[in-house]
Design goal:
Blueprint lengths: L9 E6 L13 H18 L4 H6 L2 E12 L8 E10 L4 E10 L4 E13 L4 E2 L3 H8 L9
Antiparallel strand pairs: 1-3, 2-5, 3-4, 4-5, 5-6
């Protein structure tokens, strides 16, 4: 996996492994979500955020909604680039969008998340997640901030 950084959204390249394919020989649905989770975690790390420190401070990222839109199948042995594009508003939630592209650029799937930062003590979403991410990131631009 190779992270990239430019004016394009953050992206990692992953190999579709044979044990991730289903009986129809394409990537199983749950792995699309896992690939998005992996790309988001890599993006957060590349931005310089310590997830361990975030958790130690009593905050945890949570997904509130995940939507997958399939375009072209991914099969065992394929390589897929998974982008990570963050969208911020004024509320307690933010969006992260992943485009999953075959190595030739063909769109395989889109994943959209509505997420937030959970105060692990009160079990409530914090009011300004963008402020927390920005304060913790060495490179907040990778997080769209």
């Amino acid at each position: 996996m190779t992270p990239t950084h430019s004016t394009e959204p953050f992206s990692v390249r992953l190999d579709v492994r044979v044990y991730e394919v289903d009986s129809q020989l394409h990537l199983g649905g749950g792995f699309y979500v896992k690939y998005g989770d992996h790309a988001r975690f890599q993006c957060v790390q590349a931005a310089g955020v310590s997830v361990e420190k975030l958790l130690a401070d009593g905050l945890g990222p949570v997904n509130l909604e995940t939507v997958i839109r399939y375009h072209r199948e991914l099969r065992g042995g394929d390589q897929v680039d998974v982008s990570c594009d963050w969208e911020w508003g004024d509320g307690k939630t933010y969006r992260v969008r992943h485009l999953m592209r075959h190595a030739d650029g063909t769109l395989a799937a889109e994943i959209g998340h509505v997420s937030g930062l959970l105060d692990l003590r009160t079990r409530r979403l914090i009011a300004d997640p963008a402020r927390e991410w920005r304060a913790r990131a060495a490179d907040p631009e990778l997080l769209g901030l």
